[in-house]
Amino acid sequence: MQQIIEVIRLAIGTIPFEQLLREFMLYSTKQPWFFTEFSFLFTFGVFLFFYAILFTQNALRKVYLIAFSLFFYYKSSGPFLGLFLFQIIIDYFFARKIERTEGNAKQVWTTIAVLFSLSFLLYFKYPNFLIENTNWLLLTHFESVDLFLPIGISFYTFQSISYLVDVYRGEIRASKNITDYAFYMTFFPHLVAGPIVRAKDFLNQVNSPESPDARRYKESLLRIILGLLKKLLIADYLGKYVDMVFENPSFYMGGENLLGAVAYSFQIYFDFSGYSDIAIGLALLLGYRLKENFDHPYGASNVTEFWRKWHISLSSWLRDYVYIPLGGNRKGALNTYLFLLITMLVGGFWHGASWKFVAWGAAHGLALALHKVVHKHLPNGKWMDFIGGILTFCFVTFCWIFFRAKDFDSALTILNQITYATSELDFLGFWFSRNELAILLITLLVWILIPSTWKKKGFEWSFYIPSFFWFFFLLAALQFIIQFRDALVQPFIYFQF
């Protein structure tokens, strides 16, 4: 017995606990945290144990969750944690000032607060875009700057703006307790890649999370598993082919470029909706509800419906804080079309500092305006919805080419290859050389034809599975993910925005 104890003591003594703790606590640019990282999942499990103990202690629960969220952001974005905290503090005092002010001064303070929030985003995301275009227009030679984009800055900036504007409009009261506002801003499930959460939808939950019950646990775990399946088994698998095609489009034939574009349409959907599912599931597990961010968008019969179903938190934000303030549909038809175009240009530019994103936004803005012009003259019926769905998917896929391409020239190369270098042999060769990928793409194309109501009913019916079988389903799904996922997990696409 003594010998066994000695062996255990020696074995433990060889473990570099200090080094492991240092690596765990420090931010690594090579291994930032995200939901599919094992270190995050393990840490979250430990966090959840103590969270359950503190659940009924309101003040302690909030502080504990804020602390974990800040640690999560530090592990994701490193030293920019200080910048994030600074913005939270300033926003809190701005909102209090806006609420206490009347008349024109109220509008002035709101403008200052919004511009202050935007300043961080503009500084970190758009200086090189400005420099490059200045050099092109004025023939100057300003050097680009090397700036690291803080993860999640686009999302939490829009959350900050919505909070300040809603306080100005009188739709919500400014938080009297900075802890409540910090809780809303730092809540880690939505922090680094959305969805964009409105203060008026979340602040009322801060002090009253849902009590645990079997249905909530089932729903949360199902959303997390579904998100992991989408990300690790579909999006990452498609991403390998997408990366090859978009990296060097001239090397591939037109049909391969076309299938690369289709593959990216599904990759970005399953990647981002997978992240949203995980975020919603994690929030549910903690007792909080986030709004849906996707509603089967590839089943949309027109581009207007698509934007009601795709990235709902962003599209509704753009509608409420850009389109409607501009005038919406209240200032005549021509202005309505112009406002739609401006709104989508803002949406495109929000995604990235590049003309390819501007082109993507402009294409969607023009399509939305065109649909407003013609939709009253189009016949109704299931066949029209079916044809409209096919045309919408084709149009969205066309736009994704500009979104994904390295630059504008690469996007034009892909379109040129598809237009002038496509033959039936491309698809035949693709089938024989990439049989598994071809089967997956066909399956996904059939999947989008299934009515969304059927998919929603299937999701609801899963809650009626007895808990005994549900437990084994969970284990089987996890084993399936571990067995078939790619060894190298790719970061979520929306981390770059």
- Number of extended strands: 0
How would you sum up the global shape? globular
Helix-strand makeup class:
mainly alpha
Count of DSSP H/I helices = 22
Major β-sheet, in short? Answer: none
Mean pLDDT: 86
Give the CA-CA distance, first to last residue: 58 Å
Helix content: over 70%
Radius of gyration: 24 Å
Q: Write the element-wise H/E pattern from the N-terminal end onward.
A: HHHHHHHHHHHHHHHHHHHHHH
Low-confidence stretches: none
Strand content: under 5%
Number of domains: 2
How would you describe this structure to a colleague?
- This protein has 497 residues and is mostly helical.
- It folds into 2 domains: 36-204, no CATH class; 214-496, no CATH class.
- It is 72% helix and 0% strand.
- The chain has 22 helices and no strands.
- It has helices at residues 2-13, 17-25, 38-54, 58-77, 81-100, 104-125, 127-138, 153-169, 178-186, 199-202, 214-247, 254-286, 303-309, 312-326, 333-351, 355-374, 382-404, 408-420, 424-433, 435-447, 452-461, 467-484.
How would you briefly describe this protein structure?
The chain is globular and about 65 Å long. Helix 4 (58-77) packs across helix 9 (178-186), helix 11 packs parallel to helix 22 (467-484) and helix 14 packs across helix 15.
Features:
497 residues; mainly alpha
